[in-house]
Amino acid sequence: MKFCTLLSTFFTVALTFGVTTAKSHDDDDEFLPDVRRVPMKTFTLQAPFLHDSLHSRWYDFGGDTLVRTDKYVRLTSDRPGQIGFLSSRLPLTAVNFEIIFEFKISGKGNLYGDGMAVWLTKDRSASGPVFGGPDNFEGLGIFIDTYKNNRPGVTFPYIMLMHGDGHTSYSKSDDGKSNEIAGCSARGLHNANQDTRMRITYVKGDFLRVDLQYKEPEKWTQCFRISNPPDLPQTAYLSFSAETGELSENHDINEVEVNMLVATNAELHGQPLTKLTSPPSVVQKKKSGSWFWFFVKLGLLGTAAYFGYKKYLQYQKEKKYSRDAMF
Questions:
Q1: Nearest alpha carbon to residue 187 among 143, 219, 154, 149
Q2: How far apart are CA 214 and CA 219, in angstroms?
Q3: What distances in angstroms separate CA 306 from CA 3, 174, 300, 315, one per listed residue?
Q4: Is there a contact between 240 and 119 (Cβ–Cβ < 8 Å)?
Q5: b/e burial code for range 35-64 (CB count within 10 A of at least 16 → b)
Q6: Which sign does the torsion angle of CA 280, 283, 289, 290 carry?
Q7: Statement to judge: residues 152 and 286 lie in one domain
Q8: Over the stretch 196-211, which tens digit does the pLDDT of each residue have?
Q9: Number of domains within the chain
Q10: What is the pTM of this model?
């Protein structure tokens, strides 16, 4: 009787563990399932930043940018009227990619500005009036605006996405409201207690997503996600820039990492990496497979328990015969 009770408890625990494990596995794959990340070394930026010739191998620096080789690339210092930028020497040719960079915006006092930007543009970045970068650009700009000029009802710092067609100017008068495709507020980003990070995920024809990490270490918060994002120029350079006006702050970049996204699932092999966030056939196959292996394991456990129980009965029977023979 005790054995049956133990067996029942064992199966209950096994069933609970199996369902929980399958659910956790599916949860892990909700964002970009069946994707391999291939590092693109030609866009890597990390300490000591400079090489033997006192230049970066993969990036050019300009304006008021300062490099502290053990810590950061400082696009602007906490001084008024500064502009700084860095730009990749090679274009980003990957169709689908992920950009992760670690940065910090900090300064003294309660008033600060103006902000920084990330660029994916046809031309290599040069200094300009839009967060230290060019106006009338062609490509995508993601702006981290730290000072509110004229945008009621929005909490700053504010992060927004703009698509440039080569002719349209950034609207400073309303903090880019008329240019915005998507955006989010990021209260606490300035003078955060930790180094902050941004992750930009771009899958051509499917989505563009921006995530932030500034509230807690290793915890990503989605800023925005848009479907069918604008196409990038055939040659798109990755750049960063920053600007201070009458108000100022430090804009530091600590590290840049770029990964090419490649499909690993056989059904997607050799095809464009699109619709990966909701591929019905792949997800259905994955879920069916998870349940299949769950029942296989359950069957093996049941078989082992059955033969164990048979052996237990045989042992009890032999024990009884031995005891009878003694008397």
A1: 154
A2: 8
A3: 12, 73, 10, 14
A4: yes
A5: beeeebeebebeeebeeeeeebebbbbbbb
A6: negative
A7: no
A8: 999 999 999 999 999 9
A9: 2
A10: 0.74
